[in-house]
Design goal:
The chain is built from 15 helices and 17 strands. The protein is an alpha/beta fold and about 500 residues long. The strands form 3 sheets. An 8-stranded mixed sheet has the order 7-8-10-9-13-17-14-15, with helices on both faces. The longest helix is centred in the middle third of the chain and has 26 residues. The two termini are about 30 Å apart. About 55% of the residues are buried.
Length: about 500
């Protein structure tokens, strides 16, 4: 979809979107359109009892004045419109246009005077929300569905058009990252196996990301038996991808993001139930987010040194597969008793976390993983679980989550829970059973961060099959790209 920004002038024809505040009050361009159409908009609002409540939509067909239709979208009270709400409003607008089968449209980006965003930011955020909403994934349709809901171009009308265009540029970069993350999660596992995932990450080198890929032999030499143990039952060899963006000052410590990349998870010998197993193609949602984030950072030329690392494996079953009761030695030297082969993601992350902290000495590490079903029991799909050894990092993540709508909820990490993963044969076990399952998984990961400021985001409820929203209608949400980009932009760029 092409997006243009132009000065606030009433178009002469086509499809127009105008906004209305509380009580159905039209803003200047909307009022001008109403006058141009001989008061048809006012009449339609009165007849429909349209009060301008936020996200409400009134479709006025053939209102006159040369317009095919005018959509009136409620903006609600101005003091309720911040950045997040304005971006969501853009998604509502795009959804209404898709429903109207409009290929092209103009949007009058006007908000109530009490809105908490600047004029240029309002236009940029509306455009961003619309561009996030129109994402679709139909790569494997042999007969492409009729693009009745496709929007070819949007023209955003703003009194600050040039400033809006500049404000949209970084948002567009983030949009690219979100869409890449969605694409990766939506791909079937027979297509996106570990080597293919690594190849797609390598493609980011064309955009300026430095990409390094470690194969199984290299990881074996480094002592990554925890990660490799997960992959040993699969015909697809494991990969570790390290992506680097050097946008900050030379010598500055990088910020680091680590993603779980299990391209398909059968559960291994501790096999999952058949019902719903097809969703396990999304068990690499953490790795997808990290890959999308790195694209977003390089696209907007973020002034930060950043590392993105993804451990990519397939957890499959054959005669070589890891068994319950096996003991493996991690890269850290710590030994792990594998009591449940379906608790595999933490084994992958254990080696990647240790590798990144040891090699790069980052300011902090944030890992993302579709790690536990227990987090769905605790938080549903509204929040990702946040676990952290650092209060400052935790607070910043929470604030970024509230600002973007990708919300997190901090969960406990204490010595009492840590004792639950001690083992009589090995240094630790990879599961302590049903109780506090998300917490003990986080306690396990914490043993491999070596006191580096760290946060673990359990995104099992948010990265795939997530709740639909005005800016996402896909099975894969791309969750986390906007959150982490916000974290970096707010606190770690100079």
């Amino acid at each position: 979809m092409k997006i243009n920004f132009t000065n606030a002038a009433l178009p002469k024809s086509g499809v127009l979107v105008v906004l209305a505040g509380e009580g159905g009050k039209l803003f200047p361009l909307g009022a001008a359109a109403d006058t141009h159409c001989s008061g048809q908009l006012t009449k339609a609002m009165k007849a429909a009892k349209f009060e301008g409540k936020r996200d409400s939509v009134l479709d006025c067909l053939a209102p006159g004045g040369g317009f095919d239709r005018i959509l009136i979208v409620g903006a609600g009270a101005g003091d309720s419109l911040g950045e997040k709400e304005t971006e969501l409003l853009g998604g509502v607008i795009a959804g209404a246009l898709q429903g109207a089968k409009a290929k092209m449209a103009s949007i009058a980006a006007e908000l109530p005077t009490k809105a908490k965003v600047r004029l240029e930011d309002a236009a940029a955020l509306i455009a961003s929300g619309a561009s996030l909403r129109v994402y679709s994934f139909d790569s494997y349709k042999t007969k492409k569905p009729e693009k009745n809901g496709a929007i070819d171009s949007l023209t955003v009308l703003s009194a600050a058009a040039e400033k809006a265009r500049k404000a949209f540029a970084p948002l567009s970069a983030v949009r690219e990252g979100v869409h890449l993350a969605r694409d990766l999660v939506n791909e079937p596992a027979n297509i996106l196996f570990p080597i293919e995932f690594a190849a797609r990450a390598r493609a980011l080198s064309k955009s300026g990301v430095q990409v390094e890929i470690l194969n199984a032999a290299q990881m074996k030499k480094l002592g990554m038996a925890a990660l490799l143990g997960v992959a040993q039952g699969s015909p697809h060899e494991a990969r570790l991808v390290v992506m680097k963006w050097n946008g900050g000052k030379k010598g500055d410590k990088p910020v680091a993001f680590i993603g779980k990349g299990v391209t398909f998870d059968t559960g291994g010998v501790s096999i999952k139930p058949a019902a719903g197993m097809e969703d396990m193609k999304g068990d690499m949602g953490g790795a997808a987010c990290v890959t999308g984030l790195m694209l977003a950072l390089v696209r907007r030329k973020a002034k930060v040194n950043a590392i993105g690392a993804i451990g990519i494996v397939e957890n499959a079953i054959d005669g070589k597969a890891q068994r319950p009761g096996d003991v493996v030695k991690s890269m850290s030297g710590q030994t792990i008793a594998v009591l449940n082969t379906d608790a595999e993601g933490r084994l992958v992350l254990a080696d990647v976390l240790w590798y990144i902290q040891d090699r790069f000495k980052p300011k902090f590490m944030v890992n993302l993983a579709t790690l536990t079903g227990a987090i769905l029991v605790a938080l549903g799909k509204e929040h990702a679980g946040l676990f952290s050894n650092n209060d400052e990092l935790s607070t910043r993540l929470s604030e970024a989550g509230n600002a973007t709508g990708e919300k997190v909820w901090r969960m406990p990490l204490t010595a009492e829970y840590d004792k639950l993963i001690d083992h009589d044969v090995a240094d630790m076990k990879n599961t302590s059973g049903r109780n506090a399952g998300s917490i003990t998984a986080a306690q396990f990961l914490q043993r491999f961060v070596n006191k580096v400021p760290w946060a673990h985001l359990d995104v099992a409820g948010t990265a795939m099959d997530s709740i639909k929203s005005p800016i996402n209608q896909s099975w894969a949400s791309g969750w986390g790209v906007r959150l982490l980009n916000r974290l970096v932009a707010e606190h770690y760029e100079k």
